[in-house]
Amino acid sequence: MKKIKKMNDVILKISFGNFSNPVNIVKNVAIKANCDFEAVEEGEDVVFVSNGEELARLEKLSSENGKTWARFNSSSAHFFGFGEKMGFLDKRGRNMKMMNMDNPLHTPDLDPMYVSIPFFIVLSPKKPAMGFYVNSTSRSFFNMEGDSYTLGVEDDGIEFYAIYGPTVADVIKHFTAVVGRISMPPAWALGYQQSRWSYATAQEALDVSHKMRQDGIPCDVIYLDIDYMKGYRVFTWGDRFNDPKKFVDEMKKSGFKVVVIMDPGVKEEDGYEVYESGKAINAFAKSKSGNNFTGYVWPGKCVFPDFLRSDVRNWWALQHKSLFEAGVDGIWNDMNEPSIVWTDTNTQELKNLLSSDEPMDFTLLEKLKEFTFQKDHAYEITHMDDSNKKWPHLKVRNVYALLEAMATTKAFEIYRPNKRPFILSRAGFAGIQKYAAVWTGDNSSWWEHLKTEMPISMGLGLSGVSFCGTDVGGFGGNATAELLVRWMEIGTFFPFFRNHSAIGTRNQEPWAFGENVEKILKKYIKMRYELFPYLYTLFFQSYKSGTPIMRPLFMYDQSDENLYNLNDEFMVGNSMIVAPVTEPNVTWRPVYLPKGEWIDVRNGEKYDGKKVYKIDAPLDEIPVFVKEDSIISKTDSMNYFFEKEKMMLYLDFYGQRASTQVYEDDGETLNYKKGIYNLYQVSVESESAIYNVSVKALHKEYEGRYKKAVISFMTLKELKSSTVRINGEMIKPYFENGILKVVFDLEVL
Ligand code: MIG
User: Is the pLDDT of residue 709 over 80?
Assistant: First the structure.
């Protein structure tokens, strides 16, 4: 029997059979909306209707042999979201699975990947958008191949939420009201971040940080990959980092944060503190036999915390003491699908290699390729919840990383109270954004991957994970100078901006390819820092309403079908289009611009929308278009956030009338949750030869770093006759580089 329940004005819950989840993901929330969204039963069918219009039709529900299916008529709809998926934005025609999986070879048809988010948006040009969230942590299936589409779960029942829009942004807003949204990240997490597997000694990491400052390359974070540990034992520091506190302090002196990697696998070794204390509370997941499940990862034979239990999460949180005492600022949760590299059945030779305390070298990786990744073995794990109920790994696997991220968040609460956590996670489930940023795992230094990272990240954003990014420059394989330049140009505009590469591959720090390349990369990293006010305000909006920061163009105009599968352009917010070059030896590209008028920020040239243009893009340039009648907020570049007490706010105004908001807070504490932040509203209107600027503080509780603001009239042709009034008062404009500007005080507001 199916049950239909109205959760609020925009969400309907449909359940059938007996479904069960080991953790509750959803929150029931009241959402008021002026719409008429309902589920109408027509014979066997359930029709999802808004204002009399059919948006989706459920034709069949069936349950058999531990699997439950829901079949829909698909008419001509397009499908977007599904979390982290290879391939293009539009998933019509795809057959996908949700089961968190580590497979470093990202072929175009690889599925599943590290993150599972059983959510998607149904979109047709002339209809309001809606979405479905399948509330199952079990393995699930999404077959969007034919004239019907089928959602399936490995369970004796199914529960799903039908979520109304009418805009795509509304669907995401309503979905994230149920599964959670990002918190404000620390400001430094928006900065440029440098990583490599591995900076294996304290000196090596320090050298990288010094070189950044010497060369004037802005950078906020250096990552430590697995080689900082003693023999890959989690929560230890190896001899090459023998004075971690001193090392981190040294990094801090020049404004760097240190983020360290964390794997869930705990070395099974008598006398090892983490293993012993875990064993004392029976913290580890079990195999069928009832013994601790074991699998081999970097430290050799490992056991795996059963994060399903809250006492295990607390224990895990407490283990972070040694890291936070040394002063690290962020935790990078890797291998948390969880991934097991090989099992007992493999050879002693490999075990010996991994048990050594020496830094890993790439010959080991070559060796690893000889062994089969026996990942399915992992399904024989049994978990237990707080009421001692046993759960098969099948139902826990997808939320393993989410539960781990909850434990890591707890660690921050204990050891860094009132400081914002920064967690970077590889795996995840719906709602992972509440706790962690997500990167797309082990891509390669291939042009194909540069291109595909756009739809993958946009898909994550559409699924609630707005703080996401990729290994800039590519993880596996060797970057070339040209590839690195193009990738850094793109990375500048991604929510998360980190350059990372694998052991044994060519270095790809900004200086790795000589001075000319370094100069270009520096220009873009600086641009990233200049864009801080614009980006940070987008993070605030995402925190408030789940809106992606990096967006597909169809979010701007969902009636324009040309935008539905536009994979190689993206928007940052609602006013900026980025159209990168993603092929070698190419210095121009076709760019489709949506309705309205668009301005190329490089030269001020104006383009009418709904057309394709041939746009030049020499190697050191990435085409960026700003919408006519918009304001882009900026600041001065700096070595790191917030190097200086005071910051300038620049408001680049394009067109005749526009308004924008600018958000600011202290960038590091949780005080913003208590209302200690500023939100400014700036509007400009032209009235014959006069520009009326209105600046208001919608909210002003924070002392503020922006003391003064400069408005630049970027597209003004008639310079001389222009007069500017700010909040009613005449202000004398001045010219700088031929652009009319006015400066005003934010402190008086
Ligand atoms: O499979 O810690 O995705 O970013 O450098 C290797 C070593 C394990 C996988 C992560 C990658 C990281 C690497 N890790």
Answer: yes
